[in-house]
Amino acid sequence: MKNSFRLVSKFLVFFIAFLAIANQSICQVVMRSFLSEDRSGVVETSVNLDGKPLGYQLEFLSMEKGNFFAEGEAIQRIHYNLHLLSGKEKLASFQVSVRDLIVTYYMEVKVPGNGETRTITAIYNKTNKWVKLKGVLQENCRQQDSKWGRLDGVQSYDQLLNFILSQIDANLEISCIHK
């Protein structure tokens, strides 16, 4: 009797641990409700501000409605303004467009300069929880050691946004953008 109780208790411990790990690996990072809210955060050690904090505000503007499916409405594009801040001083502003698809979240940041607009794109894979950025910037707007990164194991929407903004900070020379 004692052995069967020990066996059942061990099984329950392993089963509960398995459920906890499985639940953590399938948690949703990008919630639909987050996409219609203003967001803000801080890149703690900014390349552009010599190690000082760089603040950002993602200001929600609008949603373009898309096709209707059995589960409900699909949103085609979500529009924002992105403001980069040093304290309360606005350093630069960008137009941002987001597409929230079933397995992928795309963020496009439009970077004006020299009479043309370039784009920085962040791709977040919801299934595997990684985000990767790419950008083709004007030569005078690139940081000297420009290299776009990837983050695996994204756990929250704030972590996703902070990584995207830290990559923009690390690769874009903000001083070349007009306020």
SS summary, helix count: 2
Question: What general form does the structure show?
Answer: globular
Secondary-structure-based class equals alpha+beta
Mean pLDDT: 82
- Portion in strands: 35-45%
The total of beta strands comes to: 8
Distinctive features:
single chain, 179 residues, alpha+beta, eight-stranded antiparallel β-sheet, 2 helices, 8 strands, globular
Could you please describe the fold and organization of this structure?
- By secondary structure, the chain is an alpha+beta fold.
- It is 22% helix and 43% strand.
- An eight-stranded antiparallel β-sheet has the order 1-2-3-4-5-6-7-8.
- It is globular, with a radius of gyration of 21 Å.
- It starts with a helix and ends in an 8-residue tail after the last helix.
- About 5% of the residues have low confidence.
Topology:
Elements: H1 2-25, E1 39-43, E2 54-69, E3 72-86, E4 89-100, E5 104-113, E6 116-125, E7 130-135, E8 150-152, H2 157-171
Antiparallel strand pairs: 1-2, 2-3, 3-4, 4-5, 5-6, 6-7, 7-8
Gist?
The chain is α+β, with helices and mostly antiparallel strands.
